[in-house]
């Protein structure tokens, strides 16, 4: 084999490897962005569920004990939402602009600093918030555990609207969490590939993690019929 033939083969191999690296980097970047977008969607639905649950707790249609317990659970869940931006920065710090707070003119805000991200990488990914959301789920199930009482609530115009809103928000939480965890699984499989690990395409971004929390549906709460895949009331 002549020198020129060897050079052509080497160049061809380099070009192929470069193309593979570019394809892998593009794919990984797209998956990271998908993880961030799905996490933002999940955060929004969790906040919506908490807000509707708080409205239900203060509406006066529940007994005093249930109202107090539910209001405390919603406050704990809502207080954990302030960590959402930090958690997203930990999950994909290289995509920091996507999780910045928008300003009044629509431009991205300052967002978390690199130092904040570095410190956050040493912590967890929101176990306290997951626990708070799980507690809210269990509290709602306890409040809505009696089918007869819940059916009576549905007969009240104000309570019926709130229960329908809660069902819609809860169903979207389940969908959003499922989509987010699927996106995380795809990103994790991509980052496990030999080429991605060898070239360190993920940079300093920590491995995205699935969101694990209790979002089991209350037995007595009707499922929203108008949504795709939703069934009738339990």
UniProtKB/TrEMBL annotation:
Name of protein: Secreted protein
Region feature Disordered, mapped onto this chain: 101-134
Highest taxon of the lineage: Bacteria
This protein's UniProt keywords: Membrane, Transmembrane, Transmembrane helix
Residues annotated as transmembrane: 6-25
